[in-house]
Amino acid sequence: MRHSTKTQRDTDAPAEKRPPEQVMRLDRMGSSHQTRLSFMRVLLRRLKTEGWTFDRPVWDIDARGVGVATYTATGPERTYTLVAFAHDLAPEHRSDRVIAEAWDATFTLVDGEPSQADLERLAGEVPVQEAGRISGTELVLSRANRSVRLFEHVIDALSRGTQPDLGQIEPVGYLMRTTAVYGSGKFGAADRDVWAGRPEFAGSFQPELLTVWLIRCFTLDLVEHLAASRAPETAVTLDPAIRRRIGVGNSTGLGMAPFLMNHPALIHSWIDARETALARVRAIRTATTATIARFSELVARAEVNARGWAVDHERQAEKCDGLRDDFARLRAHLRTAPLASGQPWDALYRWGETNLSLEGQEQFAALMLEPHGDLIDDLAPTMSADEAAPPPIDGTRRIAALRDHIRAVHRWAEGVDFDAPEATARLWYVSEEKLEPRLGERFEEPLDPYEQPLAPARDAMRALAALEGWDDEDTVAAFLMRHPEHRHSVRRVQLAMRLPYAEIRDNTIAADMLPIDLLRCKLSFFGATKFDPRSDRWVRITMFQGAPFPDELAESDPDDLAYPPLS
Amino acid sequence: MSWSLGETRALAIKAARGAGMPWGMAEEAGFAVRWLQANGAPGAAALARYLEWRDGGCEGVHDLCPIGLGTALMDAGRGVPEALGRVRQPLLLVPFVARCTPSGMALRWPGAQLIASEAGLVTDAPRETLLAEEAECEAARAVAQVFDGTTRVPEGEAAAIATLDHFAARTYAPATEASRAGAGAGTSDND
C-alpha cells in the first residue's frame, strides 16, 4: 500500500510484513497488545475529530440504584442513544457466565433517539437479554455486573466526603464488567449491513465500543448517585484524575474463542493492518528526535503498566515477569544502541526477536507504532470485511494446485500427527444450554457428532488424504461434487491463499491448546488492557481505563491515555 | 417481531447441518436463505420445507438438492444450462443462478418466472408457487432488474423459523454437569 507522507518518502523499500507462519501462532497471538489501531482508540479519535456531543436526557434511578437512564451521542449526521437499565441484583444471582439470567445492569444502543413507547418496549426485553428480542432500530445488546468490592469502596468513600483509594482502583480498573456485548443482528438487532456504510462505524466493532464507552459513564454516574443518596449532606463527586483511572471491565470465556476461526476474512483485515503498520515503521530510515522522545516516554509509561499488571494465572504471571525483565533489557540495550539511523525501528525489532520474550516482542512492536500516527492511522478503516456471503470457491482450479495450497497454508503442520490422541484431544461444540460454545475432551465424552468446524488444520489434512488417487488435472469442482464434506476446508484454504492472515497456523484442538490465547488476540484488537486470565479458558480485561470521558474529549488527546501517567 | 438477516443465515446454517448436510454445504444453504430473504422471497420457508422432506432420507447431498445443484453450477464456472432438470424446492436454486450469471438470468418452473442477477430478484409469482415442492426447471438469458431489497425477515415467517430452530437444535450437545463446569472461570464473580 502506498503512502505519501514525508516520513514514508524517507524510507527504503518497504520492509516486509511478518509472515503468517510467525504471526498466526497461538503463543504469539496470545501475547498481543493493544495498539493505536485498536478499535476503541479509533473510536475516540473519530469522536474527537468530528466534534461529537453527548447528553444524558433521562436519569430516573432511585436511591437503591434501580431505574433507567439514557445517554445520547450526536455526530455530524446521526444520534445514538445508550439505554441503561439498573437492577437490584442479589449476590447469589451474580454470575459472569453466559448461563446467568440476571445482571446488575442491562443495556441497548438505539439507532436514533428512543420514544417513550420505545423505552417501555425495551424495558420488557433488554433486562432479560437473550430471552428477549430487540428490533432493527437497536444496534447492540449488553449487560454488566458490579465489581462488588470496588463498587462499595467508591460509594463508601464518596459518601463520607473523601476520595477512593487509587491503590484499590488500579488493580481492578473498573466498577462494572460487561459479560456480553452483542451486535451485528444478534437477538434481533440491526444487521451489520444496515450501518456498515456509515463513516462513523468504519472499521470494526464501533457500535459495540461506543456502547461500552457510554456504559463507563453510566457506572460512574451511578456510584456518585448512590453516594449522594446514602449521605446527601457529606457526599462528594469523584476527582477527575481518579475518575479517569476507572474503565469498564469485561469478563469473557469460550463463547468468544471461535470468533477468530469463524471470521477468517475479518481477522485477516485486522492482522494485515497491524502488520502493514509495523512494516511501514520498520522501513523508516531515520528516526526523528520527536519520535524517539515519544517512544522513550511511552516505554517508561508502559513499564508502569507492566509493573501494575497483577494476575493469579500461573502462565500469565510468568509472562508478566518476563515482560518486566524485557523492559530492563530494553533500557540497557537502548543505552548501548540508541535509536538513530540505519532503519532504527527495524534494528530494534530484530534485536527483540532474539533477546525478548514473545510478550516483550509484541509489547515493543505495539509501542513502536505509537509515535507514527501520521504514517499508519489511515489503515484503521481497512480493518473490516463484508462477510454476508461465504467466500467463493474457485472450482476450476486443478487438483495439483489444491494440494499445493493445502501444503502451503498448513506447512507448519507437517510434523503433526493428527492420528495421535494429543493432537485431537479437544473438540469445540455448542451446548444446548443458552447455546454456549464449549471445549470438550474428545476421548472422554461422546461429543463427536456435535463437533463444530473449528479444527482447520486437521480438516485440511483430511482433505489432502481424500485427494489421494485423484489426477493432478482433475478439477476442484469434481472433487467437491464427490466429497462435499471437504467443501468447508477447501474454501478456507483458498481464502488463506488470498488472505494469508485468515488462518491460524496452529492446532486449535491440541491437548495443550489454551483458549485464552484466542481471547487475548481478539481483545487486544478491541484495545483491552490488564489481561487477567481466571483459568485457561476464561479472562477478565479492562477497557477504556485512562481514556477521557465525553465531557473531557474536546480538551484531551485520547491517544495519550493508552498508558498510565508517570507519577 | 422480526429477525435480522444475519441471525436467520446463522440459523439456516445450523439447521442444514442439523439435518445432515456437511458444514460447507450448510454454509451455502445459509447464503441462499439470506439472499432470498434480503430480496423479499421466502428463503427460510423453502429451506424448512426442503429439510423436512429430506429428513432421515439421506446423508450428505441428495440428487434433487437445490443447494447441491447450485454449488455444482458455481464450482464448474461454466454458466447455467437451459435445462436444469428436476429440483426439490427450486427457489433455493435461484441465489446460485444469480451468482453464476451476475448480469441476469430468468429461471422458470410451472407457474413461476424469476429474474435473478447480482442486483437482486424480481418475480410476480405468488408465495405458494415460489415454494413449489419439486419442479422441472429451465433457465434463459434475461436482463437484470433491480429490486430494493429488505433488511428483515418478517413475522409471517415464524413457522419456518421454528422449523429451522428444530433442526438447528440437533447440532447442540446436551448440557452435562461436566461440560458446565468446564466452561466458566470456576471462581466467584462476587468479588
What does this molecule look like?
The complex is a heterodimer of chains A (567) and B (191). With 567 residues, chain A is α+β, with helices and mostly antiparallel strands. Chain A is 41% helix and 14% strand. Chain A is built from 22 helices and eleven strands. Chain A has helices spanning 6-9, 20-23, 26-29, 39-49, 116-125, 148-159, 166-172, 192-195, 206-230, 240-244, 259-262, 264-282, 289-307, 314-336, 344-355, 358-369, 373-376, 399-409, 456-466, 476-482, 487-498, 515-526; strands at 53-61, 67-74, 79-86, 105-111, 138-146, 174-182, 247-252, 426-431, 437-441, 529-535, 538-543. In chain A, the strands form two sheets. A nine-stranded mixed β-sheet of chain A has the order 1-2-3-4-5-6-7-11-10, sandwiched between helices. Chain A has a two-stranded antiparallel ribbon with strand order 8-9. In chain A, strand 1 (53-61) and strand 2 form a beta hairpin. In chain B, 43% of the residues lie in helices and 18% in strands. Chain B has eight helices and eight strands. A five-stranded antiparallel β-sheet of chain B has the order 2-6-3-4-5, with helices on one face. A two-stranded antiparallel ribbon of chain B has the order 1-7. In chain B, a hairpin with a 2-residue loop joins strand 4 and strand 5 (120-123). At the A-B interface, helix 8, strand 8, strand 9, helix 20 and helix 21 of A face strand 1, helix 1, helix 2, helix 4 and strand 8 of B.
Spell out the blueprint of helices and strands.
The complex is a heterodimer of chains A (567) and B (191).
Chain A: H1 6-9, H2 20-23, H3 26-29, H4 39-49, E1 53-61, E2 67-74, E3 79-86, E4 105-111, H5 116-125, E5 138-146, H6 148-159, H7 166-172, E6 174-182, H8 192-195, H9 206-230, H10 240-244, E7 247-252, H11 259-262, H12 264-282, H13 289-307, H14 314-336, H15 344-355, H16 358-369, H17 373-376, H18 399-409, E8 426-431, E9 437-441, H19 456-466, H20 476-482, H21 487-498, H22 515-526, E10 529-535, E11 538-543
Parallel strand pairs in A: 6-7
Antiparallel strand pairs in A: 1-2, 2-3, 3-4, 4-5, 5-6, 7-11, 8-9, 10-11
Chain B: E1 3-4, H1 5-18, H2 23-38, H3 43-54, H4 66-76, E2 83-88, H5 94-100, E3 105-109, E4 112-117, E5 120-123, H6 127-130, E6 134-141, E7 152-153, H7 158-168, E8 172-173, H8 177-183
Antiparallel strand pairs in B: 1-7, 2-6, 3-4, 3-6, 4-5
